[in-house]
Amino acid sequence: MVIKLGMIGLSEGNGHPFSFSSIINGYSDSGLADSGWPGIYDYVRRRDLSEFGFDGVQVTHAWTQDQDVTRKLCASSRIQYTVDLAEDMIGNVDGVIIARDDYENHLSMAIPFLKAGLPVFVDKPLSLDVGELRAFRPYLESGKLMSCSGMRYAKELDEPRASLGAYGEIRLIRGAILNSWEKYGIHLLDAILNIVRCKPVSVVAIDAPHVSVAVQMDDGMVLQRDALGELCRCFRIDILGTKQITSHEIVDNFSMFRRLLWHFVQSVKTGVPAIEPDHTLTVMRLLIAGRLACNERRKVSLHEIRI
Question: Which of 20, 93, 131, 145 is the least buried, fewest Cβ under 10 Å from its Cβ?
Fold first, then answer.
């Protein structure tokens, strides 16, 4: 039996429909080269054929708001069917990937599929609206909804995930990203909260020309996060412990996306949540608290964000 997936895109600056579909279906060299996403084509074409595809899984349907983009998406990743409306996939697929990071539209796009009982992956961030997150919560808990950053599965962080004790007492973890806190802060939060065992307590803004926040953890450790705005590619994490200090530049998009998609496929097969629902909601609360801390210039407790 083939698990049929629907791919939904596109939001400005986000090529995930092309990368995700290529990883699952394989790709057409000429189609992906002509897709308008040269960066994705460059890192995809460097991978071995053995790294593509999941047994018995295929992206069979696609929709974007632009017919020309949809045509390019299908040509690049050998997707067989297009639909006039995203909801037309219902009854024809076994799960849906909403590969868009315009979080303001996530609930309205996802809810028809969730109500139809289909498993859904929603690109990061899930939502920054408390009411919408409350609406999403039952689907996270039932295993029908998954949402995260691919950086949660970054290959460059395998070592600290496997040997956290080697650091001794971790005093500080710093992370820096390009672009905005709202859309890109989740990369750092998902990555780091999948390494450490402590829990975030509060957020305070740091005086800086860009968005900079410090997150207090329940064991006394501090996470410092900087969203640097427009600059060259930057996804960097530094872990500073009493016994070891390491730096990690995260560059392997393909591996993290493949791992993310593997976990989503497993959740489709088993019905078991790929990520603990409370983890997803905690990351969203941190994004909301960070924005509040910067806007209101005060310390924001996570207890204030009730979901």
Answer: 131
Do 34 and 64 sit in the same domain of this protein?
yes
Whether 47 and 110 share a structural domain: yes
Both 200 and 299 in a single domain? yes
Residues 92 and 77 in one domain: yes
Give the E-state strand segments of 132-220 in sequence order: 145-148, 170-177, 200-205, 211-217
One-letter amino acid identity for 15?
A: G
> DSSP assignment, residue 64?
-
Nearest to 87 by CA among 114, 60, 69, 66: 114
Give the residue among 159, 150, 25 at the shortest CA–CA distance from 81: 25
Decide if 136 contacts 277 (C-beta within 8 A). no
Q: What is the pLDDT of residues 114-165, one digit of tens each?
A: 999 999 999 999 999 999 999 999 999 999 999 999 999 999 999 999 999 9
Q: Which two tokens stand for residue 118?
A: 């289909």
- The pLDDT, as a whole number, for residue 60 is 98
Provide the whole-model pTM: 0.96
**Predicted confidence (pLDDT) at residue 186 exceeds the cutoff of 80:** yes
pLDDT higher than threshold 90 for residue 234 = no
Per the structure block, which two tokens stand in for 16? 């995930």
Average pLDDT over residues 171-184: 92
CA distance 19 to 36: 12
CA distances from 131 to 78, 104, 119, 134, 305 (A): 38, 12, 21, 5, 11
Structure tokens at 137: 């919560």
What separation in angstroms does the CA of 212 have from each of 59, 171, 227, 231?
39, 18, 6, 15
CATH number reported for the structural domain that contains residue 30 in this entry: 3.40.50.720
Could you tell me which residues come within 8 angstroms of residue 138 by beta carbon, excluding any fewer than 6 positions away? none
